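Protocol step 4 of 5: obtain the predicted structure for the target chain.
Materials: sequence only (see below). No template structures provided, no constraints applied. The aim of this step is simply to have a reference model before the mutagenesis design in step 5. Sequence pasted as it appears in the construct record:
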Amino acid sequence: QVQLVESGGGLVQAGGSLRLSCVASGITFSGFTMGWYRQVPGKQRELVARISSSSLTNYADSVRGRCTISRDNAKNTVYLQMDSLKPEDTGAYYCNAKRPGVPSLDVWGQGTQVTVSS
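Step 4 output (structure tokens):
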């Protein structure tokens, strides 16, 4: 059974930090591109950061320089370190696993809420 379980969300003041974690099971983790996406009510889910199987990364312009995505293949875990948080970072954060070239292998976690107060 393929499963992604996120943790680490919460309420933090502006300027603070959070580290999100996503543990994968049921997949060959090292072969998947892992991503973090954010969704706010009434808007589409948008990419925050992504890391390939070879650890190439890309970031949304809004978080570049403030967030760092990393992966630990031995632990089947992807992390999102978020620093200098802003109220506009508030949203539900979802972990995603995609196997390049295999559209059917596209898995989502249940999400974790991040709320940044001003």
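Step 4 remarks: The mean pLDDT is 97. The two ends are 40 Å apart (CA to CA).
Proceed to step 5.
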